[in-house]
Amino acid sequence: QVQLVESGGGLVQAGGSLRLSCAASGAIFSINTMGWYRQAPENERELVASITSGGRANYADSVKGRFTISRDNAKNTVYLQMNSLKPEDTAVYYCNADVLTISTMRQTSWGQGTQVTVSS
Question: Could you tell me which of 66, 42, 47 has the C-alpha nearest to residue 58?
């Protein structure tokens, strides 16, 4: 069993910053890609950013230049630094990880989500 626990969401004014963290724990052998997704009311869940175990990052066009994804492989933790936040960034943010478990099963794990609200 693998668990992802997110933290760092909250309420911020437009132009402000937040940093999200997501720690993976459990029967983990290794983690390939980790990422952040978000879902606003009545919208589909969308990829915000992802990062491979080697540090290669990928971003949605809407957040390029404002958000930075990073990870600490030793801690099985991924971060999302969000700067210059806009009201349209308001959503529930979910952590995602492509995990190879100790029993050599590959699984995609999700966190419970953390709310980010940007006021105008």
Answer: 47
Instruction: Specify the residue for token string 């971003």.
Output: 59
Q: Name the pLDDT band for 33 (thresholds 50, 70, 90).
A: very high
The owner of tokens 């709310």 is 115
Q: How far apart are CA 9 and CA 91, in angstroms?
A: 10
Cβ within 8 Å of residue 54, ≥6 positions away? none
| DSSP state at residue 1 | -
CA dist 28 and 25 (Å) reads 7
Find the radius of gyration of the CA atoms of the chain: 14
Q: How confident is the model over 41-67, as pLDDT tens digits?
A: 999 999 999 999 999 999 999 999 999
Q: Is the pLDDT of residue 107 over 90?
A: yes
